[in-house]
Specification:
By secondary structure, the protein is α+β, with helices and mostly antiparallel strands. It has five helices and six strands.
Length: about 140
């Protein structure tokens, strides 16, 4: 059984400096295992490339709903603009290829960066207590 380039990219990633969430996802065995399953079962990409990943992102599909996720690694901040362009392409590809009824992105309400990223990608906010949920119209 071969290992996908995206999974290899995720396994080689280092956490983003000062980002407790990416550190937990990359280094906590239970969280890491959950993400590995998502990478193996659903569409995922390593950006800007599988050879030099600073972010891994994908979509989990269920009942005509696509929920996007991403993990930022070391070097993410230096590549923000090109990553934003690639994320827009990922959102467009998810919409075209999967034809979901809705595309959803959940972010921690205490983190302004992911909220700004969601808005830059064209998502509209639906505030919830535990997280901001962003959806594409």
């Amino acid at each position: 059984m071969s290992v996908s380039p995206v999974l290899l990219a995720f396994l080689s990633m280092q956490p983003r400096e000062g980002d407790a969430e990416s550190d937990a996802i990359i280094n906590t065995p239970e969280l890491r295992a959950k993400l590995i399953v998502q990478i193996e079962r659903f569409p995922a990409v390593a950006l800007p490339s599988a050879e030099a990943p600073v972010m891994v992102a994908g979509a989990v599909l269920s009942d005509e709903l696509a929920e996007l996720w991403m993990v930022a690694g070391a070097g993410f901040d230096q590549h923000l603009r090109p990553l934003l362009r690639q994320m827009r392409q990922l959102v467009d590809m998810a919409r075209e290829a999967l034809s979901p009824r809705e595309i959803k992105l959940c972010v921690d309400p205490d983190r302004r960066g992911p909220e700004k990223l969601a808005r830059a990608l064209g998502f509209a906010s639906k505030k919830r207590k535990a997280a901001h949920v962003f959806t594409l119209p």
